[in-house]
């Protein structure tokens, strides 16, 4: 019998500490070549696309996530895990909780590996699902003493701050500008849908850590190459994915792209971790196979 998990099941069963631990395992497995993580692919379907990310853990399972890009009515995502030996479907997750929580957990793994242990102030631009899940996960790897949040919509900004206070118990302030949100913060998260840069690189304090989650392609990117140029260390969860974007990744053809290091390599000790005082940028692009890894762990 196939196990089917809904959004409410995911919310009930998946705690942030477990999610972060499992995503750390997945990143290391991918680096060792045990978790196969090809770049995502898509098929055109008239006025929209169906996107697939696939993955396989050697000898254990294989599976995929699918989601659409139909602007009028984007549907729920589907994640499917098959048994590697028999091909039998072990489980299915239907809904939109698993993907963002997996991205949040990867973001927390990056913070834990790349940001100073003492980092406790966080500035975030964006108040959507991805912004929330970053905080959900980061709060278990760093003792956040203050959170400052900004988005263009005052109502969403205040509602997000109220939720952070109520559900995560964190001290939070709704900022009046993106600059106020990120300037001087040890940790910065950019989680917007903006097609243009939402911050100026000069606002990032030396020695800070920055995650960017939003658009990052030519002609549509929430940050500019100057942000990565300002960093001493530039890391991503999937170098392969950065080469597979269409339109191309915003750093393609620049010296900044050549500087990108794999997070898995840092975790494994095969690439140097940042040293004290270095500024770090983490480009979250979505390591394939991590959604199925998370579902497989939940299935037990």
**What is the level 1 CATH name of the largest domain?**
Alpha Beta
The share of residues in helices is 25-40%
Beta percentage is 25-35%
Order of strands across the main sheet: 10-9-8-11-12-17-15-16
Explain what this protein looks like in three dimensions.
The protein has 300 residues and is α/β, with parallel strands linked by helices. The protein folds into two domains: 3-99 and 289-299, 2-Layer Sandwich (ornithine cyclodeaminase, domain 1); 100-283, Rossmann fold (3-Layer(aba) Sandwich). Helix content is 34%, strand content 25%. The protein has eleven helices and 17 strands. The chain has helices at residues 7-13, 16-32, 98-114, 129-138, 154-168, 178-182, 225-230, 239-242, 255-258, 263-268, 290-299, and strands spanning 3-5, 35-36, 41-44, 49-57, 61-68, 77-83, 89-95, 121-125, 146-150, 172-174, 187-190, 209-212, 216-217, 220-221, 233-236, 261-262, 280-283. It has an eight-stranded parallel β-sheet. Strands 1, 2, 3, 4, 5, 6 and 7 form a seven-stranded mixed β-sheet that branches. Strand 9 (146-150), helix 5 (154-168) and strand 10 (172-174) form a beta-alpha-beta unit. Helix 2 (16-32) crosses helix 3 (98-114), helix 2 (16-32) crosses helix 11 and helix 3 (98-114) packs across helix 4 (129-138). The longest helix has 17 residues, at 16-32. It is globular and about 55 Å long. The chain starts with a strand and ends with a helix.
């Amino acid at each position: 019998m196939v196990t089917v998990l809904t959004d409410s099941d995911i919310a009930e069963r998946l705690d942030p500490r477990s999610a972060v631990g499992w995503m750390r395992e997945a990143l290391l497995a991918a680096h060792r070549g045990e978790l196969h993580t090809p770049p995502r692919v898509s098929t055109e379907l008239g006025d929209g696309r169906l996107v697939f990310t696939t993955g396989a853990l050697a000898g254990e399972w294989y599976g995929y996530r699918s989601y659409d890009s139909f602007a009028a009515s984007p549907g729920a995502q589907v994640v499917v895990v098959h048994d590697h030996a028999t091909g039998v479907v072990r489980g299915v997750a239907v809904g939109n909780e698993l993907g963002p929580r997996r991205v949040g957990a990867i973001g927390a793994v990056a913070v834990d590996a790349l940001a100073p242990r003492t980092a406790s102030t966080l500035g975030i631009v964006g108040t959507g699902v991805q912004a929330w899940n970053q905080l959900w996960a980061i709060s278990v790897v760093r003792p956040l003493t203050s959170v400052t949040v900004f988005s263009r919509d005052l109502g969403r900004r205040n509602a997000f701050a109220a939720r952070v206070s109520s559900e995560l118990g964190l001290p939070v302030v709704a900022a009046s500008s993106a600059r106020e949100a990120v300037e001087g913060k040890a940790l910065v998260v950019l989680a917007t849908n903006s097609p243009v840069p939402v911050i100026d690189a000069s606002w990032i304090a030396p020695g800070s850590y920055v995650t960017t989650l939003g658009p990052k392609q030519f002609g549509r990117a929430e940050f500019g190459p100057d942000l990565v140029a300002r960093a001493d260390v530039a890391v991503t969860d999937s170098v392969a994915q950065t080469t597979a974007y269409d339109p191309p990744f915003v750093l393609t053809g620049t010296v900044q792209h050549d500087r990108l290091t794999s997070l898995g390599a840092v975790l494994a000790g095969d690439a140097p971790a940042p040293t004290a005082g270095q500024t770090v940028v983490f480009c979250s692009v979505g390591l394939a196979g991590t959604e199925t890894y998370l579902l497989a762990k939940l299935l037990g």
